[in-house]
Amino acid sequence: MNEERFADVTRGGYVESVHRIALCAVRADGTIVDQAGDIESPVFLRSAAKPFIAAAAVEAGVVEQFGLEQREIAVMAASHFGEPFHVEAVESILRKIGLDASALQCGTHPPYDERSAQALRDAGIAPSALHNNCSGKHAGILALCLAIGADTTTYLEAGNPAQQRILAFCSRMSDDDAVTWPVGVDGCGIPVYATSLRNGALSFARLASLAGIASDDATALRIVRDAMIAFPQYVAGTEQFDTMLMVAGRGAILSKGGAEGVHAVAAIPTGIGFVAKVLDGSGRPRGPSSIAALRRINVLDASQERELARFARPPVYNRAGNVVGEIVSREGV
Questions:
Q1: pTM, to two decimals
Q2: 3-state secondary structure 150-178
Q3: Domain enclosing residue 39, as ranges
Q4: Residue 333 above 90 pLDDT?
């Protein structure tokens, strides 16, 4: 069960580069169903933690207080690609909570979706914080601040009551102690925690099964889970891996990637949680390695794997746009 996992990058039929993958899949009772590499050392989950951050806000009552819809909850848990419908959903959250884009402290970058970025360039419009892939999460944290009476201007600080609630919620999901957790600063500025792949997988097993946790936590997780599955295009974007994996799952799979090669899945019918880390931090092996692992533990079947073929064996292109190799998952030495 603990064979090493790799992703080979080929060119002209030869292996040019190799990525090593660590991963863990568990059930909600902690039973390990698959593992590779070191599953005990702390790993920053990065954006893979967003479903739990959103759930902390949901548990505080933001849905009822501000009338949030499923698509808005989904974008709170998203690493979105800055398409117009993503921006509109974030704007809608801010409008409902009485704030605007100036309240977002996530920074600015062009949309990851090239068509959306080109449309801004063609129109002579500079990207704003709304286009940041974490803007939905930040809007959700601002909603949480308002729901509990916390200062919206200091919402990035670990000592802000909203961040304390988030860290406490996340630590409950992974059986960690938030007081002793390694905490850093994420790319968008919020506190980011590190936990083991085993405990991270346990969090996603609980997201899948809603078992082994308090009823209020389970209710909040279910609301976020249902929103992400109902609106997968809001979680990533058109034709993106997380979105298409959830589409292929047809209601049975929740998928959420994170920076530095992290990827997590909640497999709902089996109650399995899965977290993987590409140890060199590259994102390009995420699809091949995760799809192979999910097939191995029967979360994906052969027809779903074929449906996801472009992610399972993504091509390597040269500058002229010609296919010159591929990225392939591999087990063993």
A1: 0.96
A2: CCHHHCCCCCCHHHHHHHHHHHHHHCCCC
A3: 5-331
A4: no
